[in-house]
Amino acid sequence: MTFTKSEGWLDWYADPSTPRFVLPAGAVDAHCHVFGPGDEFPYAPERKYTPCDASRTQLFALRDHLGVSRNVIVQATCHGADNRAMVDAVRAASARARGIATVRPDVTDAQLRELDAAGVRGVRFNFLKRLVDTSPKDDLAVIAARIAPLGWHIVIYFEAADLPELADFFATLPTPLVVDHMGRPDVTAPLDGPEFTGFLRFTEHNDVWVKVSCPERLSVSGPPALHGERDAYRDVVPFARRVVEEFPDRVLWGTDWPHPNLTDHMPDDGLLVDHIPHIAPTAELQQQLLVSNPMRLYWPDETS
Q1: Neighbouring residues of 153: CB distance < 8 A, sequence distance ≥ 6
Q2: Which of 251, 247, 242, 255 is nearest to 289 (CA)?
């Protein structure tokens, strides 16, 4: 099947630089995706965008180039609840990958067991209205109750401004929560302002982990991670560093490759690795962010 990319779609950076920052042994990219390829794993009819293809082979090549040891592959919204491309990539990586699925309330126990056996360890709830149709909270509560016995967690993606109306619902969910991209804070707002402070207190008072990922999505003033810039996205750094320093045992990092729905620029993934020491400035914090925390969440049998 042939698919035509959405107008203005930016393809991933084809020739990433070699990072100067050497990742610690065992580093995990805890947020990345695969797209298709569409002729093998067709995109969902209800999708809000049509991406470029980004195969497991290309993801694994980036993994090795950056010095990453393992990946957590998150189901992309363009595939809906058809998890075949993600599961195929997780299986192909053997023990070096875990998956985050999208499921519907009518998923069967057998299907959940099959996903678990393949390496899936959570489901994603997306609350960005521009990417998905709003899901009824009752349906999400049903899914949460179904996956809790598996020991899975829930990945939540929302805009910072929407957290106050969602926080009470999130607190009722019977699993750990993993927040994508720091809850998309407004980095032009004060670091100690009510919005970001509210997010920090939500994290403090619940079983919440936070991905300090996607500065390229959050930055307003840049500079972008391009042309050798190793001090990129300076306006995001104080927010990410605050999360890392306040919750050092509950933070994760990921590339977000192949960076869906970017409209301004496509970052050099090697330079995104070089961004890490700005947000986790010590070797101890880097070890927790990149190795200890994701291993404890996704490969607990290897850390117990």
Answers
A1: 121, 122, 175, 176, 177, 178, 209, 297
A2: 251
Quick: pLDDT tens for 256-269: 999 999 999 999 99
Task: Quickly list DSSP for 200-247.
Answer: HHHHHHTTEEEE---HHHH-SS---S-TT-SS--TTTHHHHHHHHHHS
What tokens appear for 284 in the block?
A: 């101890």
Tokens 């929560």, residue? Answer: 177
d(CA 221, CA 299): 37
- Give the residue among 135, 132, 84, 145 at the shortest CA–CA distance from 111: 84
Give the 3-state secondary structure of 31-54.
EECCECCCCCCCCCCCCCCCCCCE
Q: Could you tell me the pLDDT band of residue 151, with boundaries at 50, 70 and 90?
A: very high
168: phi then psi, degrees, rounded to nearest 5: -65, -40
Active site residues: 256
CA distance 54 to 261: 13
Structure tokens at 134: 């709003």
- Assess contact for 221 and 254: CB atoms under 8 A: no
| pLDDT digit string, tens, across residues 9-30 | 999 999 999 999 999 999 999 9
